[in-house]
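can u do me a favor
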């Protein structure tokens, strides 16, 4: 069978210098490895030699033409394979394009898939390579169907010469590269949309309509380039006027922990709006955690506060979590009592979490936080900031006149500076103000 060359067509922009050629692919490997490497770059046509793999079963054997040239002097190196087994050996990453004879018999068990079964098989085995379909002269319908299935173009067997073959290879490779780029962009957009949806679930909008309390929050995941972490928080106002606030921390920093944090937050909001509080609420949340966690070693710390409608007193429950900080008018900021701190959720069966009554006063600012804010290092040594260091830091920032969002931003930034860079743990901080 003669060496196949395509019919006449317009020269693609990449050949005329109006579009850049793709970057060269790195490395090599047999065809059967390629399905696991779909993110690698499509081979480039930017070199001085084009490599074509011709797959056809001419009984006389196809001639190998290592120095076929197009009109511009670009060499076309042709490799030939009589079947797909030979193609697996010959198709490496330096091959720019596959030219497949559609008359080639389909591999065993694939014939029932139709007359284009061999093309479908090649596309599955070589998802990164451009493919040209070779069909009988005038068989436009079959060629069009091949393009619909996934080939970049089709060629007629009796309309072949070196110049047009080079053009067709370049066109097919650039089209494949363009399609791959579009697919990656689309996948990136979908991932970004999914991350935004997950972030909205992790960072909720507080339900405080009708309350005079001011709300602020700051969240920073510990994982590099992550939107989500294992910390979670929420704030809601129930019909009786009580404001409920919560902050928690699932041990670990991966996506599984982030997902579990979202589940616990949603469960807390639902249970709170249903009227549960204190020990009953935390016990139910522990059941949710035990059912949803991926490993029995996973636990979560939690702090819940329910502020009375008059804003002067509150109930506090701690499940292995650091106590909130409170700043009252005319008094230095300090920690709320934490003597009755119960165990973290998921550690002990039948655990109890006492609810402590706390006097807030007429004007106050209450800060809930996760341990990422206090476990950062101070300087180059191994010393941690700790709760005492955090209290002193917040006292100083309050004295400088910082409140609300500005206070939280300054606190997180200073902790990062003291640590000498990004914190390894997630950080979440919630601030509720009443006239401070």
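np, heres the sequence
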């Amino acid at each position: 069978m003669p060496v196949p060359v395509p019919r006449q067509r317009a020269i693609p922009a990449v050949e005329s210098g109006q579009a850049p050629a793709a970057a060269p692919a790195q490395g090599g490997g047999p065809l059967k490895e390629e399905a696991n490497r779909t993110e690698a770059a499509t081979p480039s046509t930017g070199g001085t030699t084009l490599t074509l793999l011709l797959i056809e079963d001419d009984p006389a054997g196809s001639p190998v033409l290592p120095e076929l040239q197009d009109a511009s002097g670009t060499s076309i190196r042709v490799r030939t394979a009589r079947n797909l087994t030979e193609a697996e050996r010959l198709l490496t990453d330096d091959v720019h394009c596959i030219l497949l004879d559609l008359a080639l018999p389909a591999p065993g068990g694939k014939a029932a898939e139709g007359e284009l079964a061999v093309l479908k098989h090649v596309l599955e085995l070589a998802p990164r390579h451009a493919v040209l379909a070779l069909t009988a002269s005038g068989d436009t319908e079959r060629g069009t169907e091949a393009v619909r299935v996934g080939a970049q173009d089709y060629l007629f067997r009796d309309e072949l010469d070196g110049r047009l073959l080079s053009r067709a290879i370049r066109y097919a490779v650039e089209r494949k590269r363009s399609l791959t780029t579009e697919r990656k962009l689309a996948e990136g957009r979908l991932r970004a949309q999914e991350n935004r949806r997950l972030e909205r679930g992790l960072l909720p909008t507080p339900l405080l309509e009708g309350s005079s309390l001011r709300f602020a929050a700051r969240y920073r995941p510990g994982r590099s380039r992550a939107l989500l972490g294992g910390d979670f928080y929420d704030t809601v106002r129930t019909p009786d006027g009580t404001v409920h606030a919560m902050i928690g921390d699932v041990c670990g920093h991966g996506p599984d922990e982030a997902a579990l944090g979202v589940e616990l937050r949603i469960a807390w909001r639902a249970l709170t709006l249903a009227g549960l509080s204190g020990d009953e609420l935390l016990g139910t949340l522990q059941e949710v955690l035990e059912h949803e966690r991926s490993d029995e070693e996973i636990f979560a710390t939690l702090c819940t506060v329910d502020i009375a409608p008059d804003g002067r007193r509150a109930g506090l429950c701690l499940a292995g979590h650091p106590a909130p900080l409170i700043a009252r008018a005319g008094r230095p900021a300090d920690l709320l009592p934490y003597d009755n701190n119960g165990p973290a959720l998921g550690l002990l069966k039948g655990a109890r979490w006492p609810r402590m009554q706390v006097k807030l006063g007429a004007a106050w600012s209450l800060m809930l936080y996760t341990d990422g804010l206090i476990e950062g290092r101070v300087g180059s040594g191994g010393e941690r900031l700790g709760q005492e260091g955090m209290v002193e830091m917040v006292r100083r920032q309050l004295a400088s006149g910082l409140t609300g969002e500005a206070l939280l931003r300054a606190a997180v930034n200073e902790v990062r500076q003291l640590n000498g860079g990004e914190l390894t743990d997630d950080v979440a901080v919630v601030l509720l103000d009443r006239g401070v």
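Residues 162-202 form the longest helix (41 residues). hope that helps!!
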